[in-house]
Design brief:
FAD/NAD(P)-binding domain, 15 helices, 18 strands, six-stranded mixed sheet, alpha/beta
Length: about 425
Amino acid sequence: MRTTDIAIIGAGPYGLSISAHLRAKEISHEVFGQPMSSWRRYMPTAMLLRSEAHASNLWDPERRYTFERFCVEKGISYVASGRPVPIALFLNYAEWFQIHAVPDVQDQQLTQLSRQDGQFHLSVSNGDMVHARHVIIATGHRYFCNLPSALTELPPELYSHSSDHKDLTPFIAKDVAVIGAGQSSLETAALLHEQGTNVSIIASSDHVSWNADNDGERSLLQKIINPEAGLGFGWRSVAASEFPQVFSMLPRSLRFYLVGRTWGPSGAWWLKNRVSGKLPVLTSHEIMRASASNGKVHLFLRAGGKTEEKEFDHVIAATGFKADLRRLSFLDPALMSSIAAFEGAPQLDRFGESSVPGLFFVGLLAAPTFGPVMRFMFGAKHAAASLAQRFASEKSSHQPLNNPIAATPSADQRQ
């Protein structure tokens, strides 16, 4: 058994960026997880990133290991905006970043996290036990896959979530329904269609939203009127991308509304001509129920006041992710019950610390506090800097900072 001051759980964009910031300040910590595991194991090999190149960075405080610098070093043409980034290129960059900025990741998975006598107890996949004073949960989206309830009654081999598929070739020449109208649905359907799958998109929304075309060429006036930020174009995007601390000051009801209703399902500009007019897109179709017969899926869809039945070999739900603490299977029940939460999201202070002193959350679970940017890897920029500030202050004072949630009622707790 060993002891560490800070344990970072997860080695994706958030975990690696936080570690890079802590290393720069010589703050002792350990990172647990396989680097970029979800990206390598669960995203289609032919996928293109939705984010533009300038927003596809991992983050070290001195900006020595940016995506642009990687491209320059490797002799790869770099365009900040207007050219989609292939996932294979991004993963090569992420590996380069990790080797240079975070070379000592513990390639082990957390199996259980509990807390006793003011310390966290971590059980990891190689059988080790680790004690930690602080734990940062940076596990990404995989725990939070959202599936339509109608599908969960089907045999498991007949349906899946879009994040389950790195390789789509098993669906060649099959009849497949893809559920949803967001980037994941649209790109999954495009990739299936292009490999010879008979695919249909089914969406409850009344239309598909497409992001504005972007050729990378913009005048100075356009840049002023409609600036480009990490989450897209416009001053609203600038606010959401760059000011998560301001977002956290909004009333809880407004924060939850904005997170749920903004930056919703849409398709990247470069995807439109691969979908529109190329394959069936059934909007305003609601799945009423699903059944299985002779190895086929039968979907009963409601549209225009009528119900119709359609048959498929497989259904892929590209229906996003729903943040809920209860889905973190490694959390000990006693620890879980001690975390103050609202609608499944932990209540966090300005550094991302929960009501359990020393337990921090970043990424999707932090979005209801800090805004939509935390649903995207661009949010790692803010989480890493904030946590580095938090622990550097503690290090300089040689004593733990007070936990505002534990010490005094937060805005969330007063509502």
